[in-house]
Design brief:
This protein is about 30% helix and about 20% strand. It has ten helices and 16 strands. The strands form four sheets. Strands 1-2-8-3-9-15-10 form a seven-stranded mixed beta sheet, covered by helices on one side. It has a four-stranded antiparallel beta sheet with strand order 12-13-11-14. It has a three-stranded antiparallel beta sheet with strand order 4-7-16.
Length: about 400
């Protein structure tokens, strides 16, 4: 490995070993205290490399400045500290497979688990690369600790050089995975003319279009009574909740049957018992009218089940989460064009595809800070097969430096 590769690998494995899983049921900010363990480490490391204005905000974000050496716009670079709640993130044991040979990758803590190019086609392009995975029983957390490693490595390199760059602002946010990464104070605290998240996948991806997203909570209150004397009296909340799920479009609007520009209605959690049930959903679509339609479909399913059992109490609450960043970025493509030009300077052909998800940039863009998303190389996210190439991370690091260089050139 080169010195750059070694630094990226060391940072990534160090950060991934720290549990930073967020919790959408928590009302605190950040949602979990464990995220602050990484936040405090990042404060220390930023100070060690010579960044200025380093601070940990009361809402759990780490902020810092890389002073400019030339005129230009103030540019923000962001990554998130938390990992997804959907899969185990406790006890992550990152491992590095040096010089990947193109074959099957097995996992020491889960011998039945196998990662191959057939499972993850992008892996076929990475023969000879250094691949980082977890050990088989946890996710890796490259989403988005790879972004953190990229930004810190690029920042250290920039600070060690007198090459032209405008002022850069860095931000590492909590709770992105649960849609709460952008506190209302962050845009002003960041103080950037525009920004980028390093939270993307394959090399070349420069994304300026995301899902629009709503979250929904359905509650079902039944009638409880001893099952031995329940005839004609019991209203089973589990049965009614199951009917609501069954009434939704199973063949056309579930995540497992959609791709491209298709949206979906996804039940993420179902808890309770025969007396009371709660179902949580996420609603996704690239267009606002499609998102509204999915909300109406969910409400209609709830209303139909309610009409069939008037003794129950069924509520459906839908709340906005984030909106497609395209609505704002297509009006001024300056940050997108800057990133594309910087990528081409590196011999990377930029690719812009819609993100079937969202980033902190979705919210930042909506709040007035244009913020496209850039690649890191991470793949197979939110599960035990998650992996990343160190060499892909190096290309992302070069891209951040290239954006700074181009911005200083006007």
């Amino acid at each position: 490995m080169s010195a750059l590769h070694e630094e990226l690998c060391a940072r990534l494995t160090r950060y991934c070993a720290i549990d930073t899983q967020s919790d959408e049921d928590s009302a605190s900010s950040p949602s979990t205290e464990i995220q602050l363990t990484l936040a405090r480490l990042l404060v220390q490391e930023l100070q060690e490399i010579g960044a200025q204005d380093v601070r940990l905000t009361e809402y759990g974000a780490v902020l810092a400045t890389i002073p400019g050496t030339a005129p230009g716009p103030v540019i923000g670079f962001l990554a998130h500290m938390d990992t997804a709640p959907q899969f185990n993130a406790t006890g992550v044991k990152p491992r590095v497979i040096r010089g990947y040979n193109g074959g099957a990758i097995t996992f020491p803590d889960n011998p039945a688990l196998v990662l191959t190019p057939e499972v993850s086609p992008y892996l076929a392009e990475k023969v000879g690369h250094d691949i980082v995975t977890a050990s088989g029983t946890t996710l890796l957390g490259a989403d988005d600790k790879a972004g953190i490693a990229v930004i810190l490595t690029a920042a250290r390199t920039l600070l060690a050089s007198d090459s032209p760059r405008p002022t850069l602002r860095l931000a590492f946010t909590p709770d992105e995975e649960i849609g709460r990464g952008v506190d209302k104070r962050l845009p002003a605290d960041l103080g950037a003319d525009f920004a980028y998240t390093f939270d993307g996948g394959a090399v070349g991806e420069i994304e300026y279009e995301s899902f629009s997203a709503d979250g929904a909570t359905v509650t079902v209150k039944g009638v409880s009574i001893h099952p031995g004397t329940a005839k004609g009296k019991m209203v089973n909340a589990i049965t009614l909740a199951s009917k609501i799920i069954a009434a939704l479009p199973q063949a056309t609007m579930q995540p497992e049957v959609t791709d491209g520009r298709d949206g979906f209605i996804h039940a993420t959690e179902m808890t309770g018992g025969s007396s009371d049930m709660t179902i949580k959903f996420i609603l996704r679509d690239f267009e606002l009218d499609g998102l509204a339609q999915k909300g109406e479909i969910l409400r209609a399913a709830c209303a139909a089940v309610q009409a069939g059992e008037p003794r129950a109490e069924i509520t459906c609450t839908i709340r906005p989460q984030y909106r497609n960043m395209r609505y704002w970025l297509e009006k001024d493509m300056t940050p997108v064009d800057l990133a594309r030009d910087a990528a081409r300077d590196l011999g990377i052909e930029p690719v812009s595809v819609p993100i079937r998800g969202g980033t902190d940039g979705s919210r930042l863009t909506e709040m007035g800070v244009p913020c496209p998303n850039l690649f890191t190389g991470m793949q197979e996210l939110h599960g035990p097969l998650e992996w990343i190439s160190v060499q892909d991370m190096a290309r992302a690091t070069e891209l951040m430096q290239g954006i700074a260089r181009r911005a200083a050139q006007g």
